C-alpha cells in the first residue's frame, strides 16, 4: 500500500508541474504573469509533500493490512488526486473565489479522509493504551479541517485570507507527526 501510495503521489506532483507552459515573452514580465500559477503550485507541492511525509509515518503503525485500510487509503488518494485540477484552476483564475474555495474543500476532504485512515489504524491498537493515548492528542488533525473550512469560506471575502489559512495549516504540519516517531523509537 505504501509503494502504491508513493507512486500516486509522485504522479500527482508530476501532473502539477506539467501544467506549466513556457511564457510567450523573453523577459521578467513574461515570467511575472505566471506568479499566480507558481504560488498555487508551491502551495500544492508543499501540501502533497506533507501528506506524503505524514502518510509514510502513519503506515508504519499498521499492524494488519485489510480491505478497510486499503479503501480508506484509496479515498485519501482520490481527494489528493484532485489537487492538480484545483491547483491549475486556482492559478489560471488568479485565485478567484470559487476555484480557491474548491481548493479548500478538496483539502478539507483530504484531511477528513486522512483522519478516517488514522482512526482505522488506531483501532488496530485497541490494547496498546500508550499508542491510543498518544494518537488521541491530535490537535493538528482536529484544527486542520476547521481551518480548511474557514479558508474555503474566506475565498469569497478575500483570496489572501484563504491563503493565510492555507499557509497556517501547512506550517503546523510541515514537521512530521512526532507522536508516531516517539512511538516507533519506544519500540
From TrEMBL:
<protein>
    <recommendedName>
        <fullName>DUF1211 domain-containing protein</fullName>
    </recommendedName>
</protein>
<dbReference type="GO" id="GO:0016020">
    <property type="term" value="C:membrane"/>
</dbReference>
<dbReference type="Pfam" id="PF06736">
    <property type="entry name" value="TMEM175"/>
</dbReference>
<keyword id="KW-0472">Membrane</keyword>
<comment type="similarity">
    <text>Belongs to the TMEM175 family.</text>
</comment>
<keyword id="KW-0812">Transmembrane</keyword>
<keyword id="KW-0630">Potassium</keyword>
<feature type="transmembrane region" description="Helical">
    <location>
        <begin position="146"/>
        <end position="175"/>
    </location>
</feature>
<keyword id="KW-0407">Ion channel</keyword>
<dbReference type="GO" id="GO:0015252">
    <property type="term" value="F:proton channel activity"/>
</dbReference>
<dbReference type="InterPro" id="IPR010617">
    <property type="entry name" value="TMEM175-like"/>
</dbReference>
<keyword id="KW-0633">Potassium transport</keyword>
<feature type="transmembrane region" description="Helical">
    <location>
        <begin position="71"/>
        <end position="90"/>
    </location>
</feature>
<dbReference type="GO" id="GO:0005267">
    <property type="term" value="F:potassium channel activity"/>
</dbReference>
<keyword id="KW-0631">Potassium channel</keyword>
<keyword id="KW-0406">Ion transport</keyword>
<keyword id="KW-1133">Transmembrane helix</keyword>
<feature type="transmembrane region" description="Helical">
    <location>
        <begin position="96"/>
        <end position="117"/>
    </location>
</feature>
<feature type="transmembrane region" description="Helical">
    <location>
        <begin position="28"/>
        <end position="50"/>
    </location>
</feature>
<keyword id="KW-0813">Transport</keyword>
Amino acid at each position: 500500500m505504501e509503494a502504491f501510495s508513493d507512486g500516486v503521489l509522485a504522479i500527482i506532483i508530476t501532473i502539477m508541474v506539467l501544467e506549466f507552459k513556457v511564457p510567450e515573452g523573453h523577459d521578467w514580465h513574461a515570467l511575472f504573469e505566471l506568479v499566480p500559477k507558481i504560488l498555487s503550485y508551491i502551495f500544492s507541492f508543499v501540501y502533497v509533500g506533507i501528506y506524503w511525509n505524514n502518510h509514510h509515518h502513519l503506515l508504519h503503525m499498521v499492524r494488519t493490512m485489510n480491505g478497510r485500510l486499503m479503501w480508506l487509503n484509496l479515498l485519501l488518494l482520490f481527494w489528493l488526486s484532485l489537487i492538480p485540477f484545483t491547483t491549475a484552476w486556482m492559478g489560471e483564475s488568479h485565485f478567484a473565489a470559487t476555484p480557491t474555495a474548491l481548493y479548500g474543500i478538496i483539502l478539507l476532504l483530504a484531511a477528513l479522509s486522512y483522519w478516517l485512515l488514522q482512526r482505522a489504524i488506531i483501532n488496530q491498537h485497541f490494547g496498546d493504551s500508550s499508542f491510543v493515548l498518544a494518537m488521541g492528542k491530535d490537535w493538528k488533525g482536529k484544527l486542520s479541517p476547521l481551518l480548511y473550512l474557514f479558508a474555503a469560506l474566506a475565498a469569497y471575502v478575500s483570496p489572501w485570507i484563504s491563503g493565510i489559512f492555507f499557509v497556517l495549516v501547512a506550517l503546523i504540519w510541515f514537521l512530521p507527526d512526532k507522536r508516531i516517531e516517539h512511538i516507533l523509537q519506544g519500540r
